Amino acid sequence: VIKDKVKLVAFTNTNAIHDEIWRGKYQHQLENFQRIYVSSRDGFRKPDPVGFQRILSDFRAVPSETVFFDDVEANVLAARKLGIDGVLVNGPESVVAKLALLGLIES
Q1: DSSP designation for 60
Q2: Cα–Cα distance between 59 and 12 in angstroms, integer?
Q3: Half-sphere exposure of residue 1, counting CA atoms within 13 Å on the CB side?
Q4: Which one of 12, 93, 96, 101 is most buried, counting C-beta atoms within 10 A?
Q5: What Rg do the C-alpha atoms of the chain give, in angstroms?
């Protein structure tokens, strides 16, 4: 199980209404995350570097040892500028390929 190997954190740009809906709809999947940062609640949004820096600080994470998945290129580029391994997601296969490359899952 990936959550036993790494720290899983989500960072989403969303509003309070959508946050409430998807927390209910995906409750079981969200239990895998140690923390979920929500822009409307936490006060920072992607691609602002402040958000990435805050999350790195909160988890005492090293940028070069951090992987960030997103489907918005501007967000991925912002993460890369901070030394984070940013992965542009075009579908589930993008995530699976990266996780396999990292040795976290079998491909």
Answers
A1: T
A2: 17
A3: 8
A4: 12
A5: 14
CA distance 5 to 72: 26
Tell whether the model's pLDDT for residue 107 goes beyond 80: no
CA separation, residue 20 to residues 10, 24, 33, 52 (Å):
15, 6, 16, 23
How many helices and strands, by DSSP H and E, does the chain display?
6, 4
- For range 65-79, the mean pLDDT: 97
* 31: nearest Cα among 63, 66, 2: 2
Q: What is the mean pLDDT of the chain?
A: 94
Looking at per-residue confidence, does 9 or 107 come out higher? 9
Angle at 70 between CA 101 and CA 31, to 5 degrees: 85
Q: Can you tell me the distance from the alpha carbon of 56 to that of 51, in angstroms, rounded to the nearest whole number?
A: 9
The structure tokens 């929500």 sit at 38
Residue 71 pLDDT grade (very low, low, confident, very high; cuts 50, 70, 90): very high
